[in-house]
Design goal:
Number of strands of chain A: 0
CATH class of the largest domain in chain B: Alpha Beta
Helix content of chain A: over 70%
Strand content of chain B: 15-25%
CATH superfamily of chain A: ABC transporter involved in vitamin B12 uptake, BtuC
Largest sheet of chain B: 6 strands, mixed
Distance between the termini of chain B: 29 Å
Low-confidence stretches of chain B: none
Number of helices of chain A: 14
Number of domains of chain A: 1
Largest sheet of chain A: none
Order of helices and strands of chain B: EEEEEHEEHEHHHEHEHEEHH
CATH architecture of the largest domain in chain B: 3-Layer(aba) Sandwich
Order of helices and strands of chain A: HHHHHHHHHHHHHH
CATH architecture of chain A: Orthogonal Bundle
Number of domains of chain B: 2
Oligomer: heterodimer
Largest interface: A-B, 27 and 32 residues
Number of strands of chain B: 12
Strand content of chain A: under 5%
Structural class of chain B: alpha/beta
Radius of gyration of chain A: 21 Å
Low-confidence stretches of chain A: none
C-alpha cells in the first residue's frame, strides 16, 4: 500500500512523500497535489474496485457452479461499454463536440453513461431471472446480451469519429484514476455497502454449492436468492465498471486464488479472503502499471491479465498435482 | 401405526405452459399411505413419472390436483424452513465442488437448525458425527467429497439426510451408479435406519431383484396404469409386476 503512494511515473523522494502525508507545513505544492489528488484516490479506488470485483466474481462462480463465471459474463460490462460508446457517438458525431475536450464533465458523463448501460442490462437480467427456472438458461441469456451489446458497440464505433474511438479505447483499457476526489466518498460508501451485504449471503452460497435441489431441501428459497446474488454482483460490477472501465480478470482470478490459498469452500472464509486477495492483486497491478520509468501509466486491463493469467494457471496446476497425490 | 406420508387424490404433471392450455397429467389420481418406520420402493418402467412424483412430494414442483400430507401436515401450507425439518432428499444432482470435505457436506444437514453465521453447537457437531458413524463414513470425515467413490458419496448424502433429522427421507435412484456390492450395502444400510431409528424411507429404483428382498412395500407405476402399493410377495403373486413391466417375473 505504501509502495503505491511512493511509486509513480513522477519520481518523488520518499522523504517528501512522508512530509506531505504527515506534516502539515513546508510542503512543496506540486508534490502534495500529485499525492493527495492523484495517488491516494487512485490507491483507494484500486482497493475498493479490487475487492468489489473479486466478490462479484465469487458470487457468480458459486451461483452458476461454473469456475469460468466472472463479472463480465452477464453482459453487465458490455452494457457499460455500450453506454459509453453511445455517449461518445451522440456527443461526437451527432452534436459535434468530442467528449474528450470537455474535461471533467466528459469524465463524469462517461461514468454515468457506463452506469446507465450496466443498469439497463441488470434490470433486463432481473426480469429474465424471474422467468427462467434453469440457471444455465440465465447464463446463456447473459452471454447473448454481452454479444449483442458488443455488436452494437462495434457498429457505433464504425460510425464514430477518430477522436471518440480513441477515447473509447482508452476507457476500455481500465483505470483506477477515474474517480475524482469529490466523488470518491460516494464510490467508497456504495462499494462498502455491497461488500458488507455479500457477507450475509455466505450461508445461502454454501447451500448452493450442493446444487439447487439440495439447497431448496435445506430450506433455501433459491429463486429469490438467485435474484439477490445477481442484483448484488451486478450492482458492484456496474459501479466499478462505470468509474474504472471494464477491468478484466480480477473477478475471474481472485476467487480461484482465494479458494486455493485457504483450501476451503466455506463462503464465510471465502468472501473476506476474496476481498483481501482482490485488494492485494489490484494494488500490485496498480503498482506495476505505474512503475517509475514508464511514461504515463500502463492500461490496468493489460496488467491484470498479464499478472493474473499465469497465476491462475500455476494455481490450477498445483491443485491438479495435489489431487492426484492424495490417496 | 402412525401415518408418515399420505397422498390424497394426488395428480402430478406439468401446469399449462405457453401455447398449451391443458395441464399434462402424468398419472391417475394417486391414493396411498406410508406408515412410520416403513421402507418403500417405487419402481416401474421409464417414463412412468417416478421422478416427477418424487419431485412433487419433495416440494420442488407443484401438484396438479389433490394433496400431500407429511406427518399430519399439508405440504402446501408449510414454509421451506418447516419442510426442511420434515423431509430430506438424496437426489441425483452431482456435487463437484473442489474443497468440500465429507464433514462439510454432512454438516449442511444442520443448516436448517443453525443461524446465518453457521456456528454449530456441540450438539450439532455430535449429530453430524453420529450420522457419519451410522452410515459408516466417519473415517472419511476429513477427505474431499469428490475424491470418494460413487457408493461412498451416496452414503455421505444419506448421512447428510440423517443430520437433517427428518422423519421422512426420499431417495431418487440412490443405487443407479453403484456396483452390486455397493447396492447391497446401501439397501442394508437403509433397512437398518428404518429399524433402528424409525425413519420412514421412500426410494425409487430399477433394481427389482434387489428391492423386493429388502423393502416392506413396493409401489408400482407405469404409463396408463394407476399407482398400486403392496407387499412385494403379494405383487409378485398376483402378477402385478408382470402387468406393470410387461414381462414375466418370478422370484
Amino acid at each position: 500500500m505504501l509502495a503505491n503512494v511512493l511509486w509513480g511515473s513522477v519520481l518523488i523522494a520518499p522523504k517528501t512523500v512522508f512530509e506531505v502525508l504527515f506534516l502539515q507545513h513546508d510542503i512543496p505544492i506540486g508534490e502534495s497535489l500529485i499525492i493527495w489528488d492523484y495517488r491516494i484516490p487512485q490507491l483507494i479506488v484500486a482497493i475498493f474496485a479490487g475487492a468489489g470485483l473479486a466478490v462479484a466474481g465469487l458470487l457468480l462462480q458459486t451461483l452458476f457452479r461454473n469456475p469460468l463465471a466472472d463479472p463480465s459474463i452477464l453482459g453487465i460490462s458490455s452494457g457499460a461499454s455500450f453506454g459509453v460508446a453511445l455517449l461518445l457517438f451522440v456527443s461526437g458525431t451527432l452534436a459535434g463536440t468530442a467528449l474528450s475536450t470537455l474535461g471533467w464533465i466528459g469524465t463524469l458523463g462517461t461514468s454515468l453513461a457506463a452506469l446507465a448501460g450496466a443498469i439497463v442490462v441488470l434490470i433486463f437480467l432481473m426480469a429474465v431471472s424471474s422467468k427462467v427456472s434453469h440457471i444455465v438458461s440465465l447464463l446463456i441469456v447473459g452471454i447473448m446480451i454481452a454479444y449483442l451489446a458488443g455488436a452494437l458497440t462495434g457498429l457505433l464505433r464504425f460510425y464514430s469519429r477518430k477522436e471518440d474511438i480513441q477515447a473509447f479505447v482508452i476507457w476500455g483499457m481500465g483505470t483506477f484514476s477515474g474517480v475524482s476526489r469529490d466523488q470518491l466518498p460516494y464510490f467508497v460508501l456504495v462499494i462498502s455497502i455491497g461488500l458488507m451485504a455479500s457477507i450475509f449471503l455466505a450461508k445461502p452460497l454454501n447451500m448452493l454449492l450442493l446444487g439447487k435441489q439440495y439447497a431448496e431441501n435445506l430450506g433455501l428459497n433459491t429463486s429469490y436468492i438467485t435474484r439477490l446474488i445477481i442484483l448484488l454482483a451486478g450492482f458492484l460490477t456496474a459501479i466499478i465498471t462505470a468509474y474504472a472501465g471494464p477491468i478484466a480478470f480480477i473477478g475471474l482470478a481472485v476467487p480461484h486464488i482465494a479458494r486455493n490459498l485457504f483450501k476451503t469452500s466455506d463462503h464465510l472464509i471465502l468472501i473476506p479472503a476474496s476481498i483481501a486477495t482482490g485488494i492485494i492483486l489490484a494494488l500490485f497491478c496498480n503498482l506495476i502499471a505505474r512503475l517509475p520509468g514508464i511514461e504515463g501509466s500502463l492500461p490496468i486491463n493489460a496488467v491484470t491479465s498479464l499478472i493474473g493469467a499465469p497465476f491462475v494457471i500455476a494455481v490450477i496446476l498445483r491443485q491438479h498435482r495435489s489431487n492426484t497425490l492424495t490417496p | 401405526m402412525t401415518e408418515m406420508l399420505k397422498l390424497n387424490k394426488l395428480q402430478i404433471g406439468y401446469a399449462p405452459q405457453g401455447k398449451q392450455k391443458e395441464p399434462v397429467s402424468l398419472s391417475f389420481p394417486i391414493e396411498v399411505i406410508v406408515n412410520k418406520g416403513e421402507m418403500v420402493a417405487l419402481t416401474g418402467p421409464n417414463g412412468a413419472g417416478k421422478s416427477t412424483l418424487f419431485r412433487t412430494i419433495a416440494g420442488f414442483q407443484n401438484a396438479l390436483e389433490g394433496s400431500i400430507i407429511i406427518d399430519g401436515k399439508q405440504l402446501n401450507t408449510l414454509s421451506l424452513r418447516q419442510m426442511s425439518k420434515l423431509l430430506s432428499v438424496v437426489f441425483t444432482d452431482r456435487i463437484s465442488d473442489a474443497y468440500l470435505s465429507v464433514f462439510d457436506v454432512v454438516a449442511t444437514g444442520r443448516y436448517p437448525y443453525i443461524n446465518q453465521w453457521m456456528k454449530m453447537s456441540k450438539t450439532d457437531k455430535q449429530i453430524v458425527h453420529q450420522s457419519m458413524e451410522m452410515t459408516g463414513i466417519a473415517r472419511f470425515a476429513t477427505r474431499l467429497f469428490r475424491s470418494l467413490s460413487d457408493g461412498e458419496q451416496q452414503k455421505v448424502l444419506i448421512a447428510k439426510a440423517l443430520a437433517q433429522q427428518t422423519p421422512l427421507i426420499i431417495l431418487d435412484e440412490p443405487a443407479a451408479f453403484l456396483d452390486y456390492p455397493s447396492k447391497l450395502s446401501l439397501l442394508k444400510l437403509l433397512k437398518k435406519l428404518c429399524n433402528e431409528t424409525q425413519k420412514t424411507i421412500l426410494l425409487s429404483s430399477h433394481d427389482l431383484e434387489m428391492i423386493v428382498r429388502h423393502v416392506d412395500k413396493l409401489w408400482l407405476m407405469a404409463p396408463n396404469l394407476p399407482l398400486i402399493a403392496g407387499m412385494p410377495s403379494q405383487l409378485i403373486e398376483n402378477k402385478s409386476i408382470e402387468k406393470y413391466f410387461g414381462v414375466a417375473y418370478s422370484l
